[in-house]
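Running this now, will post back.
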Amino acid sequence: ASSGSSAGVATVASGSSALGRIIVDSRGHTLYLFEKDRRGASACSGACLVYWPPLLTSGAPTATKGARPSLLGNIRRADGTRQVTYAGHPLYLFSGDARRGQTNGEGL
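Update: finished.
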């Protein structure tokens, strides 16, 4: 899975953090939703993407380790790339998270 550029099929899993159970990408990095997004569409573009790169996929995303396959999907972004969704919410990474399980983007 890749953020910022589509390099393959994304994988989403369940992980642990100081906040409890979270969903993570294939590297164990926390995945976030953006409250301004509307179901099926991303509201994050331009400068937003510097801090909140979308989780992109080149095909149907895969669920492992506790993530529910029935909740996974994807949407087409304005630039034509495919962004992974979970329970209908587009997923993002946070540029301030450097290690597995970090949740520095929570509440921002």
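Residues 1-6 have pLDDT under 50 and may be disordered. More later if anyone needs it.
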